[in-house]
Amino acid sequence: MSEPAPVRVGGGHAEPVISPLIELRQVGFAVTAPVPTRILHPLDLDIAAGSSVAIVGPSGAGKSTLASLIGALQQPSEGTYRYAGQPVTGRSLGQLARFRSERLGFVFQNSHLIDERTASANVDLGITDPRMPSAVRVQRCIDALDVVGLAPLAGRKAAHLSGGERHRVAVARALVKRPEVVIADEPTAALDQTTGQAILDLLSSLTDDGTTLIVVTHDSRAAAMADQVVSIVDGRLR
Ligand SMILES: Nc1ncnc2c1ncn2[C@@H]1O[C@H](COP(=O)(O)OP(=O)(O)O)[C@@H](O)[C@H]1O
Ligand SMILES: [Mg+2]
Q1: FRET pair for 185, CA 20 to 30 Å: which of 20, 73, 196, 216?
Q2: How do residues 208-225 score in pLDDT, each as one tens digit?
């Protein structure tokens, strides 16, 4: 997996300043319907390329909302979001979709696999480049399943996989396009202790080759493994 290029700003003879991959400035989120509700108060957040971040806090605090803003699944109500030095706020829905598909991989609480498809065919759904030759696609899927330790089960239908295996397939599906950032929202919530730990170990190993990892979690083990812990309480950074 190639390391995302750090963004260098400034010039002259001074040491270059490496700006963060993800920069939120006074980013907040509020809804007007059904009743006006402030969900996330304006906050600043910097995430360095290749680092791991745990977003923690009680249920309903605004963790998923923050993750969805970073993942450009929702637009903030205020503030600016810069990614690799470029503004994300202000882009069209099409540009945001392309941004997500080119750069980000998502893992959710549930694996959302298609039962009738094989593990490999589910992973293939994560490939977003329509020009990728099919032989490369097949190899990419096997490689991604290998990362999660499931290459031997590539041909098995998702319906016949265990809960933990399904989750590992979902992780492989997020990794297959080799995203710069993986965003995982409570990836261990539906798993037993041992399986959850295996998923956390797997996710945290991604930073070894430069992938940036953002994990929303209730799990203190995940927080302990992160480079940066972002604590949200009642929609505010703590
Ligand atoms: N689009 C929305 N409209 C109304 N309320 C929302 C919306 N999105 C989230 N909320 C509310 O905002 C709060 C924070 O949600 P969420 O970010 O999902 O919290 P967490 O992931 O920390 O449990 C919750 O009370 C939730 O019901
Ligand atoms: Mg949530």
Answers
A1: 20
A2: 989 999 999 887 888 888
Q: What pLDDT is stored for residue 4 in this prediction?
A: 52
Q: Report residues of the chain scoring pLDDT below 50.
A: 1-3, 10-11
Q: What number does the ligand 1 atom closest to the CA of 61 have?
A: 22
DSSP codes, 66-133: HHHHHTTSS--SEEEEEETTEE-TT--HHHHHHHHHHHEEEE-SS----TTSBHHHHHHTT---TTS-
Q: Which residues make Cβ contacts (< 8 Å) with residue 233, sequence separation at least 6?
A: 57, 58, 61
Cis-peptide, bond into residue 87, ω within 30° of zero: no
- What pLDDT does 192 receive? 84
> What integer pLDDT is reported at residue 219 of this predicted model?
78
Q: Which two three-digit tokens encode residue 155?
A: 């041909």
CB of 55 sitting under 6 A from ligand 1: no
Per-residue model confidence (pLDDT) at position 1: 44
- For ligand 1, mutation pick of 39, 64, 77, 231 (most atoms within 8 Å of CB): 39
Q: Does domain 7-237 have CATH number 3.40.50.300?
A: yes
Per-domain residue ranges of the chain: 7-237
Can you name the residues that pair with 228 across neighbouring β-strands?
53
